[in-house]
From TrEMBL:
It comes from Nothoprocta pentlandii. It is found in: Membrane. GO terms for biological process: intracellular protein localization. This is Protein odr-4 homolog. Pfam families: ODR4-like. Its main location: membrane.
Length: 393
C-alpha cells in the first residue's frame, strides 16, 4: 500500500495552467506537510526560469537541459520561506508523452538532490517518526494524466512506489497555528586559533549548541504542558467545504532549562579567544498543523524546527548579504552591530496558512514582492505583508 497525498484543489488548477503554456517541459516543487497516515500538498511552485535561458535552447525531445543545481538552489530558497510544519514534499514535471520514460529518471535524481540540499543546511536531524518518502509527480501536458510515485530519500537505492493523488477543496482553510516568541541571547566565542576569523563556521557551531537547548525545552501550549501522544485539538468541529480561513491560534511559551541538573557532571574548557559574537533579540516563530487529529508531539516538533530554522536562516542570509555587498573579513566586524533580517508573513488565498520571508530594514517592499513572485510564483499586495517582529541585533 503506497502513500496517499491529499491535495489542495488550487494545486490542480495551477498544474493545469502550467501545462497549457505549451512549453517542452516544466519542473517544480510540491509543498506541504507529512503525517503518519497521509501527506498534504497545499502548494506547487514552478522552477523559476534562468535569466540567460532562452526558450529556443530547450530541446523538446530531451530533458538533458534541466539544470539540477538550479532546481536544488530554488528548493533551498523556498525552504527558508516555509514556516514550521511545511516542507518540500517532492518534485513535479509536466512534459509531453514521449518524455514519460525520461521524466521518471529525472524526477528520481531531482528528489534526492533537493532533499540533500535542503537537509544539509538544517541544524536538526530527522527523527525516527519522520516520513522519508518524497513524491515524484509526472503530468502529461497532452492527456493531463497524472502519475504519482514516491521514493524513500533515506535509501539511496530506493525504487519507485505507487501513490494516490486525491484532490480536496479548502484543504488548509482551518489548520491550527502555533505562535511563540523566543528571546534569544547567544554568546559565541571566536577562537584565536580559528583561521581568518571564520565567522560563519563559528556562528553555526554556536547555533548548534543553542539548538540542543531548544530541543530540550519545555513547551506550554495555552499555558499547559500536554502529553506528547494526546490530540492537539480537543473535541474539534471539522469544517468541510468552507473556503473562508478559520485559523485557530495557540499561544506557546518556551521554557529553556537553565542547567542539566546535579545528576550530570559538567566540565569546563578554557579556550583562548580573540573575540565573540552575540546574538540578541526576540524571534517570532510559527508552525502550522493539519486538522486531522494531530498529536501534540507533531505540533511541538514543527515549532521547535521553526525556531531553529528561523535563526539559522537569518544568520545565513546576513552572511550572504555581507559577502555580496562588503566582503567578509575580520576588520569589518570588529565592534560592529549588525541587524539580522526581520521575519514577515504573507497569506495564501483560501488557506489559513501564511508563508514567510525575511527583510532587512533598508529593503523596499517591492523587493519582497519580487522575491515572492520569483520563488513562489505568488503575487503579493503590499498591504498583505505582515512584519512579525522588531528588528533585532
Amino acid at each position: 500500500m503506497g502513500r496517499t497525498y491529499i491535495v489542495e484543489e488550487a494545486v490542480g488548477k495551477y498544474l493545469s495552467d502550467l501545462s497549457a503554456k505549451q512549453k517542452p517541459y516544466v519542473t517544480g516543487l510540491l509543498i506541504g506537510q507529512c503525517s503518519s497516515q497521509r501527506d498534504y500538498v497545499i502548494r506547487a511552485v514552478r522552477t523559476p526560469p534562468k535569466e540567460e535561458q532562452n526558450e529556443s535552447t530547450v530541446t523538446p525531445s530531451k530533458l538533458t537541459s534541466i539544470d539540477e543545481e538550479w532546481v536544488t538552489a530554488h528548493a533551498s530558497q523556498v525552504s527558508r520561506m516555509l514556516p514550521g510544519g511545511l516542507l518540500v514534499l517532492g518534485v513535479f514535471i509536466i512534459a509531453a508523452p514521449e518524455l514519460a520514460k525520461d521524466s521518471q529518471n529525472v524526477l528520481r535524481k531531482l528528489i534526492f538532490s533537493v532533499e540533500k540540499s535542503v537537509m544539509k543546511r538544517r541544524l536538526w536531524k530527522a527523527g525516527e517518526d519522520d516520513i522519508s518518502d518524497r513524491a515524484a509527480l509526472q503530468v502529461c501536458c497532452t492527456t493531463k494524466k497524472i502519475v504519482c510515485r514516491t521514493y524513500d530519500v533515506q535509501d539511496p537505492k530506493s525504487s519507485a512506489k505507487p501513490a494516490d493523488w486525491k484532490y480536496q477543496s479548502a484543504l488548509s482553510a482551518c489548520w491550527l497555528a502555533l505562535d511563540c516568541t523566543v528571546n534569544v541571547n547567544i554568546h559565541i566565542p571566536l577562537l584565536a586559533t580559528s583561521p581568518n576569523h571564520d565567522l560563519e563556521k563559528n556562528t553555526k557551531n554556536g547555533l548548534n549548541r543553542w539548538s540542543k537547548q531548544i530541543e530540550d525545552s519545555v513547551f506550554l501550549i495555552n499555558g499547559q504542558v500536554k502529553d506528547n501522544d494526546t490530540e492537539l485539538l480537543e473535541g474539534p468541529k471539522k469544517l468541510r467545504g468552507n473556503t473562508q480561513s478559520c485559523a485557530q491560534f495557540s499561544d506557546v511559551k518556551v521554557l529553556t532549562q537553565l542547567s542539566q541538573g546535579s545528576s550530570r557532571r559538567s566540565t569546563a574548557t578554557v579556550q583562548v579567544c580573540s573575540g565573540s559574537i552575540n546574538l540578541k533579540g526576540a524571534v517570532k516563530c510559527r508552525a502550522y498543523i493539519h486538522n486531522n487529529k494531530p498529536k501534540v508531539k507533531e505540533a511541538i516538533q514543527a515549532l521547535k524546527r521553526d525556531i531553529i530554522n528561523s535563526l539559522s536562516d537569518r544568520c545565513e542570509i546576513l552572511f550572504e548579504d555581507l559577502i555580496i555587498n562588503e566582503g567578509l573579513d575580520k576588520k569589518s566586524f570588529e565592534r560592529e552591530y549588525r541587524v539580522l533580517p526581520q521575519r514577515l508573513f504573507v497569506p495564501v488565498a483560501g488557506s489559513s496558512v501564511m508563508l514567510s520571508d525575511y527583510k532587512f530594514r533598508d529593503e523596499a517592499t517591492g523587493e519582497i514582492q519580487e522575491h515572492f513572485v520569483e520563488m513562489l510564483d505568488q503575487a503579493v499586495q503590499a498591504e498583505d505583508i505582515h512584519i512579525a517582529e522588531e528588528a533585532s541585533t
